[in-house]
From TrEMBL:
Domain annotation RAE1/2: ranges: 435-563
Keyword tags: Cytoplasm, Glycoprotein, GTPase activation
One GO BP annotation of this record: intracellular protein transport
Family statement drawn from the similarity comment of this UniProt entry: Belongs to the Rab GDI family.
Protein known as: Rab proteins geranylgeranyltransferase component A
Function noted in UniProt: Substrate-binding subunit (component A) of the Rab geranylgeranyltransferase (GGTase) complex. Binds unprenylated Rab proteins and presents the substrate peptide to the catalytic component B. The component A is thought to be regenerated by transferring its prenylated Rab back to the donor membrane.
Locations listed in the record: Cytoplasm, Cytosol
Gene name for this UniProt entry: CHM
UniProt superkingdom: Eukaryota
Major localization listed first in the record, in broad terms: cytoplasm
Transmembrane segments: none
GO terms assigned for molecular function: GDP-dissociation inhibitor activity; GTPase activator activity
Length: 637
């Protein structure tokens, strides 16, 4: 919950009943997630202990009670499939502390300091804007020109080349040093190809290497959130990796989808005719508004039906519908499908060969980055500080204060309340959607590649009519979200039943829950084994209109939790709309001033340098022009 005071312009206080930042946008270590699971498996009265505030309400006031406990998470079920030998005696090791983002301006230095593991050598980069008008942004066919190579290095090759630096003490008579080195190299590559057995005790011990998101999202490289991060300079607090693969699931197989022109013409999945058909259609989608005759007659048709009229093969229709447009087949119309395809194509080439970015250490880093920027300029954050009620003036019908769990009255002019704080009485007329979520820790990727450091997204079509499509995001250890030799898999869909009932069919198609004995002799086509999993349902209040809440004063603004979309546009639009209602003449998230230009009320002393550089360095309007070659690849700082 947040409040603003007009008498102190720009100052805000934030009260959280939880002991962590971000609410349902948060990320947890493994032990932190286990604590979160235990907390949400309890059944508690949300209004328990909230009656003391009634004694503090004056005669000309009335109170709106708030929930003490969060009721947005339901049906939490966790399962362990890894060997649990001695797991109860193992404690989490202090292995991987998060580097403060204010120190993380040079990504390569930060990663080397945090971890000496091979995955730390993978490319990551801070956000910086790309000048418009470069070759990679004009049309889809040129988007791959000069595009970055795979964001990951082949770890086996790294280990093999380092063998020459080691002394060879095990040379036998008649055997040269080169032969020994070759034999050792072959054995290392062979060992690396075999999946290593991961036990539950290892997962617990390496628990701090996990950063597990409650909600799974990616950032479109030309989405509203990326633009906001650059404009506000909040991007300097975070680092990102490019999603390396977009996958498709068809006829029981997982395969990689060609995105750029180079990918299309190098693809072995498509015939030459299909390649030309796909390029022609995607080029049309880039500026479909200029060719209304091509789609006006199909405006009321479903996008899937429109694709059939374009003489595309079933293979191409599947790729476009589920892996490029990523829209539901049942209720997506032609215009919406064309817009989604256009957005995908426009995002290609800005930071890499796919449209998506993922923040290092997980999605939960994004709200914390905004918290850091706000705190530098006077914002106050209070964790573990529940608010009992809102105090409303009976005459003006405006909220004038809140009463916290200490009984302290805090006055303000504006109040922003997250939906989950409202009582059942306030939300009696509200109808919520639900999101089904699953998080898996697995021992290998769903699609083997030359490098084990892949970030992949896969949309699985509905298994049966009436079921939703499932979005799957697979993260490797170089994203700093899981331990080495494991993968973190997020599955998300709209809820029909419980999360386990909704997602278990997809999990069964792609993963194995087999025991150790059943999985011996891993073969080329064997499914990844699940080591641990959790399922839960999360409330989606993003589509709720403010008028649905009963008797809310006009200066109380409601914000929702995460929505079910892949991107973050809904949250950015909602935040900007609330801000503009409160401060219509102010700019939303402007670039911060230089530290030396800040003047505080009082003695006029300058604050200590909070660590910002000149904001004009990353302001899109003042960025120096770059060559086409520079603009087609991410920064390697």
């Amino acid at each position: 919950m947040h409040w603003w005071n007009n008498q102190s312009k720009g100052k805000a206080a934030y009260f959280f009943r939880r002991q962590y930042y971000g609410g349902n946008w948060a990320s947890f270590s493994f032990s932190g997630l286990l604590s979160w699971i235990k907390e949400n498996q309890k059944t508690a009265d949300p209004c328990e202990g909230n009656t003391r505030w009634e004694e503090l309400i004056l005669e000309n006031e009335e109170g709106i009670p708030l929930n003490k406990a969060d009721q947005t998470i339901q049906h939490v079920e966790d399962f362990c499939y890894a060997s649990q030998d001695l797991a109860e005696d193992v404690e989490e090791a202090g292995a991987l502390p998060k580097a403060p983002a204010s120190v993380a301006s040079a990504s390569s230095e930060v990663i080397e300091e945090v971890s000496g593991t091979p995955e730390a050598e993978e490319k990551c980069f801070p956000l910086e804007d790309r000048p418009s008008g470069t070759k990679d942004e004009e049309t889809f066919p040129d988007s791959a020109a000069g595009s970055e190579p795979e964001c990951t290095a082949d770890h086996e090759a790294v280990e093999v080349t380092s063998l020459g630096e080691k002394p060879c003490d095990n040379v036998t008579p008649g055997q040269s040093v080169q032969e020994v080195e070759n034999n050792e190299a072959a054995s290392i590559v062979e060992a690396a190809a075999e999946p290593r057995k991961i036990t539950y005790s290892q997962i617990v011990k390496e628990g701090r290497r996990f950063n597990i998101d409650l909600i799974s999202k990616l950032l479109y490289s030309r989405g509203l959130l990326i633009d906001l991060l650059i404009k506000s300079n909040v991007s300097r607090y975070a680092e990102f990796k490019n999603v390396t693969r977009i996958l498709a699931f068809r006829e029981g197989r997982v395969e990689q989808v060609p995105c750029s022109r180079a990918d299309v013409f190098n693809s072995k999945q498509l015939t030459m005719v299909e390649k030309r058909m796909l390029m022609k259609f995607l080029t049309f989608c880039l500026d479909y508004e200029q060719h209304p005759d091509e789609y006006q007659g199909h405006k009321d048709s479903k996008f899937s039906d429109y694709l059939k009229t374009q003489k595309l093969t079933p293979n191409l229709q599947h790729f476009i519908l589920h892996s490029i447009a990523m829209v539901p087949e049942a209720d997506c119309y032609t215009i919406d499908g064309l817009k989604a395809t256009q957005k995908f194509l426009q995002c290609l080439g800005r930071y890499g060969n796919t449209p998506f970015l993922f923040p290092l250490y997980g999605q939960g880093e994004i709200p914390q980055c905004f918290c850091r920027m706000c705190a530098v300029f006077g914002g106050v954050y209070c964790l573990r500080h529940p608010v009992q009620c809102l105090v409303v003036d009976k005459e003006t019908r405006r909220c004038k204060a809140v009463i916290d769990h200490f009984g302290q009255r805090i006055s303000a002019s504006y109040f922003v309340v997250e939906d989950s704080y409202f009582s059942e009485e306030t939300c009696a007329n509200v109808s919520y959607r639900q999101i089904s979520r699953a998080v898996l820790i697995t021992d290998r990727s769903i699609l083997k590649a030359s490098s084990d450091q892949q970030i992949s997204i896969l949309t699985v079509p509905p298994m049966e009519p009436g079921q939703p499509a499932v979005c799957l995001i697979e993260l490797c250890s170089s994203t700093m979200t899981c331990m080495k030799n494991t993968y973190l898999v997020h599955l998300t869909c709209s809820s029909i039943k419980t999360a386990k009932e909704d997602l278990e069919p997809v999990v069964g198609q792609l993963f194995s829950e087999s025991t150790e004995t059943e999985s011996e002799g891993a073969g080329e086509g064997q499914k990844p084994q699940i080591l641990w999993s959790v399922y839960f349902n999360m409330r989606d209040s993003s589509g709720v209109d403010r008028t649905s809440y009963a008797n809310l004063p006009p200066n109380i603004y409601v914000c929702s939790g995460p929505d079910n979309a892949l991107g973050n546009d809904c949250a950015v639009k909602q935040a900007e709309a609330i801000f503009q209602e409160m401060f219509p003449s102010e700019e939303f998230c402007p670039p911060p001033p230089n530290p030396e230009d800040i003047i505080y009320d009082g003695d006029g002393t300058q604050p200590e340098d909070p660590g910002f550089g000149n904001p004009s360095e990353t302001n899109p309007e003042t960025l120096p022009e770059k060559s086409t070659e520079e603009s087609e690849r991410p920064s390697e700082e």
